[in-house]
Amino acid sequence: MSRLTLPALACATLLAGCAGTNMENLSQAGGSLFTAATLSDTSVKTLSDQSCAEMDQKNTIAPADSTYAKRLATVMSGLGNTGLPLNAKVYVTKDINAWAMANGCVRVYSGLMDFLSDDEVRGVVGHEIGHVALGHTKAAMQVAYTTAAARGLLGSTGIASLTALSSSQIGDLAETFVNAQFSQRQESAADDYSFNLLTKNGANRQALASAFRKMSQLDGGQSSMLSTHPGSLERAKHIEDRLAGGR
């Protein structure tokens, strides 16, 4: 992460990546931009609760007695010792993706489970949990809020009225968060977190490397994970180097 302040980082991100954002909208969003820069842990949790609930409404959740749900329960049973209140579910979709929010909401897409073994899915989910544990998802939610604000999607909402956001506004915020990109440094840190978590739980650490190798074979259009998880082969090698070095 660079040493830019959050407002500066957010504005740089918006100016570089949001061609549709005009200066009038950016100016009108001033209050919301400040809100994003000052979001407390409680506010981030509120936004995460709302965003996760909205995503759940838009997607088909695998029933508790389904093969997918049972597989995910097995996956999560090997990811203890996080100290986080995790709530994991499967979205039934051909998309290949997984994500976690700061409130412990973990969502794994059935397309990913079709593509990977349980051990490999465990490594990927451990990586997503790492983003939460290391504070990356809080920063991503702040930037997602800022992006939505600058696009004029949140009006003049302030911290005190976060719970007044409409379903549409929360939906826009959630989609922005889910599609957020982490830095290479954050990705590497989350990889190491997953490796260490798998070690603590006596799980298959090699599967984390094999998951990255499998995902490197996919075309970018097939997996939204590839847009936010670059350098899969290099990351697989890093895990393999750690295994070979006994560290």
Keywords:
three-stranded mixed beta sheet; disordered N terminus; 247 residues; 61% helix; 13 helices; mainly alpha
Q: How would you portray this structure in words?
A:
By secondary structure, the chain is mainly alpha-helical. It has one domain (6-245). Helices cover 61% and strands 5% of the residues. The chain is built from 13 helices and three strands. The protein has a three-stranded mixed sheet with strand order 1-3-2, sandwiched between helices. A hairpin with a 4-residue loop joins strand 2 (98-100) and strand 3 (105-109). Helix 7 (118-133) crosses helix 10 (184-200).
Give the low-pLDDT segments.
1-31
Mean pLDDT: 81
| Order of H and E elements | HHHHHEEEHHHHHHHH
Helix and strand content put the structural class at mainly alpha
Widest sheet: strand order? 1-3-2
**Separate helix tally:** 13
Q: In total, how many domains does the architecture comprise? A: 1
Largest sheet: 3 strands, mixed
**Strand percentage:** 5-15%
- Estimate the helix proportion, in percent: 55-70%
The value of Rg in angstroms is 18 Å
Count the strands? Answer: 3
Outline, from the CA principal axes? globular
C-alpha termini separation: 25 Å
